[in-house]
Amino acid sequence: EKTGKVLGEFCRCYKEQFGVALFNSVRYEIEGTGGPQAQLLHRKVPLEDHVIYSGNIFQYIEENKKWRNRFCVVPHNYGLVLYENKLAYERELPPRVLVNSAGYKILTSVEQYLELVSNSLPGATPKSGHSPILKCPTDFPLILWHPYARHYYFCVMTGKEQEKWRAVFQDCVRHCNNGISEDSKVEAPAFTDAIRMYRQSKEQYGTWDMLCGNETQILSNLVMEELLPELRSTIGPRLKGKAPERQRTWIQVSDAVYRMVYELAKVQYDAAVARCEQERPQLESTIRTDMDQIITSKEHLASKIRAFVLPKAEVCVRNHVQPYISSILEALMTPTSQGFAEVREVFFKEVTDMNMNVVNEGGLEKLVEYMEKLSHLAFHPVKMQSCYEKMEQLKLEGLQQRFDVSSTSVFKQRAQIHMRQQMDDAVYTFETLLHQELGKLHGKDELCKSIQRILERVLKKFDYDSSTVRKKFFREALLQITIPFLLKKLAPTCKGELAKFQELIFEDFASFILVENTYEEVVLQSVMKDIMQAVKEAAVQRKHNLYRDSMVMHNSDPNLHLLGEGPAIDWSEEYSGQPEAEPAADRRRRAKQVVSVIQDDEGTLPYGVTAEALLQPGSPEEPHPEVPPSPLDAVKEIREALVQESLGNEEERLMNGTDGSGASEEGVLLAGAARGGGTQPGPARDGDGVRCATPASPVPAAEIPSGAGGQPCHQHGANEHGECGAPQPRGTTESGEGVQTEF
C-alpha cells in the first residue's frame, strides 16, 4: 500500500518532468554550443573483458553462524560476487552471493557497526556482559552496512589486506552509487527532477544521502524512508528474545521488506517509463514544430514570475547566501584540487617509472607489458586511493548546518568519480599518442625521449581539462547547496502564490512548461551571478591552478580526436608476436585482472582461534562441503625457495601482497618494501619490484602538489596487474545464502 501510494505520486511527477526534459534536450540539440572542448580523449569501453579484483576473504554466514573462506570476484560492473572457492569460480559453478553495494557503508570496526545497529532499533541495546550481535575472529573486520538491506560481514588476517579490500569495496560502492546513466539526456534528468519535486512536496529540501544506485534502488529508498519508521513502531515492540536476537530479527525483517518494495517499485516504474516512451514521438514532433512558440510562451511566464519572486529572492541571497559563498567555495576547492594534483602526480610517477624500466630492461617487449598495466591505472582502487583520500578531508563545518546539508558524501563521491575519469582520459590519450609514434621509433633512446615528450603534452592537456572539470564541479556544488536553502526560505511567501501563474501557459504547451520549474529557474538566476563571479575570481587569482574562462588552449593535435575514434588498443595481442589472434570465446575466458590477488590460496584463521571459538553461542556444528583445491604444494615449495634465494635477508618477502600468505597458482610475484621513506641510497622500486629512479614531477608554476620534489610516494605490492585465466561471473543466481538485488 505504501509503495503504491509513493510510486503513484512519483510517477505523476515523472510524467510532468519527462516532457520538460524532452523539450530541454531538443532545444539544446538545436541551439546548444556546449562548453570548452576537452583536450584529452575519452575511452568508450574502459573495462571490457577485465576483472577489477579477486581474492580470498572470510565471510560470516548468518544461516549457520560460521565464518567461511570465500573467493570474491569484482567484475567490470563492480558487483561483489562470492564463490565457494576459486575452483568453483573457474568451473563456472553458480556463485553463493551477489551484492550490489549501492547505498552501503564500509565499516572497519565492530564497535562502529554495533552502534549503528543499536541506533536502528531503539531499546534493543545489549546489556553489559551479554554477547553482541557479531563477533569477529580477527582484528581486521570489513562490514557492509545498509540502512534497509541485509548486512555483509567479512574479515581478513592483516591490516594490509584490510586496507586493500577496503579500497576495493569503496570503489564498488562509489561506482554502484552512481547508477543513473549520464548518457541519457531525457530519462536521467526527468528522474532526478521528479525525485527532487516529490521530496520538496514533503518539505524535504537539501541533499539526500540515499540518492544512490539505479532508479529502482533509489525509489525503494524513497519508499523505505517513509515506511521504516512506521514499520519500526509497529513491529519493534513485538520482537522477542534478548537484545542481539531482536536486532538480528529486525535486520532480517527490514531486508525482507526492502526486497518486496524493490520488486513492486520496479514494476510500477517500468510501466511509467514505458508510457512516457510511447508518447515520446508525438511530444517530440510537437516540440520541433512549435519550438519558437514554446520558447516565447516560457519567456513570458518567466518574466511574470520574475517580477513577483526576484525582489524577495535577491534580499534572501544578499542576507543569507552571498556572505558565505566564498567560504563554501574555499572549503570545496582545497581538497578537490589536492585530489586532482595527486591524480597528476600518480600518473606522472607511473609513466616515468615505466620509462626508466623500459630503458633498463628491454625496449618494446617490456613496454607492452607495462602499457597493459598502465592502461587500467584509473580503475586500480589501491593506486587511486591516495587521490580519493584527499577528498575525504572535505568539511563544511557550520555551513553544513546553516544550509541544511545532511552530508558531504554526495560531493566527495562526485569529485572522486571526476578524478577517476580524468585519470583514465589522461592514460588513454597517452597510450593513443604513444601507439601512433611506435612505428617511427628506432632504439631505446628514441623510445625514452618520445615517452617523455608525449607525457609533457598529456600533462598540459590534463591541467586544462582538470581546471574545466573542477570549475564546473564547484558551480554545480554551490548550486546544490544554496538553491534548496533559498527554496525553503522563500516557500512561505512565494510557493502558495504560484498557482495563479498557471493560466499564462497555453494548453498545447502545458507538457513542456511547468510553473514550478520556471519558478526554480528564476531562483537559480538570482544566485547564479554571485556563484559565477566567485569561481571566476578564484580562477583570475590562479587559486589551485584554475585557468581563466577566457583562456582557450589551441588544439596542438588537430587529428587527436580522430585517433580516439579508432578501435581500442590491445597491447598484448598487437605486439605479442603471436601468429594468430586468440578466438573471441577464449579471450572472454581469460579475463585480465586490474589489481593483483593478495591471498590466492585457501587461507586459515589465526593460531589459537578454533572452529568452536568462531561459532556464536548455541550455533549448530553443521558440515559444509567444500570443493577441494587443486594440489600445488610441490610448485609452491620450489617457488618459495626461489624467493628466499633471490631476496636473501635484505628484502621483505611478500607473496600475493600479504606477508607470507603462500604462493599463487599463477606464480610468486615479488615486491620490494620501501625503507626509510625513500632516503636509502640507490633507486626506488616501483609497484612490481623493478628498480627505477623517479624524478620529481614537473608541476604548474601556480601550484606544487604534495609529494613533488623528488620524493614521490611509492606503493608496494605484488604484480598489480596479474592475469586471471578464469571466466567472468554470469547473471544472478539464487542460492541458500540469499542474493542481493541483481546488478
From TrEMBL:
Boundaries of every PH domain copy: 50-174
Domain of life: Eukaryota
PROSITE patterns, sorted: PH_DOMAIN (PS50003)
Annotated spans, Disordered: 571-593, 673-743
InterPro entries: Niban-like, Niban_1/2/3_dom, PH_domain
Protein family: Belongs to the Niban family.
Protein name from the UniProt record: NIBL1 protein
Protein species of origin: Dasyornis broadbenti
